[in-house]
Amino acid sequence: MLSKLSILPINNILDLLLALIDISVVAFVIYRGMMLIKGTRAVQLLKGLAVLVVASFASQVLGLDTIQWILEQVRLAIVVALPIVFQPELRRALEKLGRGKFFARPLSFLGEEDMSKLISELVRATQSLSKNKTGALIILEREIGINDFVETGIKLDAVVSAELFLNIFEPNTPLHDGAAIIRGDRIIAAGCFLPLTDSPYLSKQLGTRHRAALGITEVSDAIAIIVSEETGTISVADEGKLTRYLDEKNLRETLEELLLPRNQQGNSVFWYRRGK
Fold this sequence. Notes:
This protein has 276 residues and is of the alpha+beta class. The chain has two domains: 2-98, no CATH class; 107-273, YojJ-like (1 (3-Layer(aba) Sandwich). It has helices at residues 2-6, 10-37, 42-62, 65-85, 87-98, 112-131, 147-150, 162-168, 208-219, 248-259, 262-265, 269-273, and strands at 136-140, 154-159, 179-183, 186-192, 223-227, 234-238, 241-243. A seven-stranded mixed β-sheet has the order 2-4-3-1-5-6-7, with helices on both faces. Residues 263-276 have low confidence and may be disordered.
């Protein structure tokens, strides 16, 4: 193989390298774009567009002139409507690009040590909040950006710590009623407003915090930790599903399962302490 490459002209090798770089950059940009819309309503819209493309191709092959003409008119309307339909996703992508965060490392790519420390602080904070029956809502952003909701709160950009959470959710303070959002290992905002779930199956005993926690996990891949103000019960929401009545051990195990890669869970300091 090396001998074959050695006889190629240098220009051909440079062209090959440039082509590989070109393809790699385009593939990565497409991947990041897909991560932006993953778990949002835009995915369903893209599926609808794919159906129209297939139908247009089939009508052209089969010679269905009337259907093809109708699809051409629809295609023109879609081209005009696309910027409006995808306005939230486009704005989010341009904001990230302008702030230099389009290629930012998401929460899921934190190192094992940093992630374990983050989990430890979250467990410590929720245990104190639960003991004092202090209501709290903590959101962990993962790959899908939730800047639209970050902007509804107060920017902090502070290192995650149990003590800071206790101050944020202190009753009768400005930030108490909103959600605190974590990006990476930092609390980027607090007092944030989140979308409420429309699920008819949610118990009427659960209040706004639980509905907001489910709402944000329905429109993104974020994880929500809730502490009930009435009972002190700790819950975790993920992918529109709520897990309730978590004690310290269960909460730690749940967060490790959701946040630590499987090959790191067995080596985690917390799993080691439990003898696993």
